[in-house]
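Catalogue entry: protein

Sequence with per-residue tokens
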Amino acid sequence: MNHLRGATSYHAGLAAEDIVARTYVEQGATQLAQRWRGASGEIDLIFRLTEQIVFVEVKQSKTFARAATALSPRQVERILNAGSEFLATQPKGQLTPCRFDLAVVDGTGTVQIMQGALSG
């Protein structure tokens, strides 16, 4: 039973990432990576929006409130560190303008983006 629930959650998470990716692309962003992995951890989605790099953590749950509270301080630290690793691959390095967003997807597939929610 747990295996099935885990597989369902995994696929729901992938679907949520796809919905969020489409939302950013519709807003003019260029997708650079999905599930980018560095030594510090994984970033769900990475976009370029004009000169800015946007790192996005996607959370999916039945409600926005539940999804938004599913992120621990430890996860935020890992995402910020992985973002720093990714910036090191860019021509301007750590000087690259960037932000860290939280995108939550509720049970109906509606997206709510909190720009800069994970930035220090």
Notes: Helices lie at 2-26, 64-68, 73-87.
